[in-house]
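Q: Can I see a sequence and its folded structure?
A: Here is a first one.
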Amino acid sequence: MSSQWLRWAKRLNAIAQAGLTYSEGPYDLERYHQLRDIAGEIIAGHSNLPPAQIVDILRREAGYPTPKVDVRGAVFRNNQILLVRERSDGRWTLPGGWADVNETPAECVVKEVREESGYHTRAVKLLAVWDKSQHSHPEHFFHTYKLFFRCE
């Protein structure tokens, strides 16, 4: 998908989601539902996923739209870094995943490292916060921040 099309569709969806959160009038709510569906159709028109699946994913998001948070752990030992295979595409990556509600980012990364590698670690330092849209990651229709921790 063209990144400009995706940016427009994400922006339309964010406007729709905020409108659905704060609007009370039935006509406004109907328009925001239509706007969200249009955003989903734009995304589907530029991807390999069926429109119904995209619209369903967008409909599950509720409340004011904010970026998702992904945590990653950098575990070093003997001048080597721990990598795991990503389930979605089989590529090598730092262990990590989505941050969970009611856990600190540090707790999340420790849990993700343990679940994906079996290693018990502790997060000792936040190394970086990346806005995923500003780096050469594959496009995704949710805005994501990646938090990188050094773990021991």
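Q: Show me another, different protein.
A: A second, unrelated one:
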Amino acid sequence: MPPDTFVFKGKTQMRVMVMIKATPESEAGQMPSTELLTAMGQYNEQLVKAGIMQGGDGLKPSSAGARVRFSGKDRTVIDGPFAETKELIAGYWLWQVQSMDEAIEWVKRCPNPMVSDSEIEIRPFFEPADFGEAFTPELQDEENRLRKQIDGQMR
């Protein structure tokens, strides 16, 4: 079993973040049309019915955000907007799929999320096995405790 996968209900699974890349239009605050919102809602419904979607949201333009740069013990706050649109994210989903191939197939079914050409990136999450011996039983217990606490807050 690849290290970025795990077994859930008898099936090998992997968690991925699916990121919708920002465009000049999304960074300018251009809102999607009713037609696009409807199409994306229908797509999200398919993802939920398939048991894949665990979460997701659109993000406001980087002009509404900030970055914190770390340099040793120093922290520098940089207010948006940020110039490199191609490196920004306009939205995301959290999915649980059986493979990267399955995630790719689902992304290919997605309506174009932007008014112009766009790009969607898929990245797997690290799973505990990926960290090897560095992820000690004590660290695993602490991680499990925090996840349970988060789950309780989400309900």
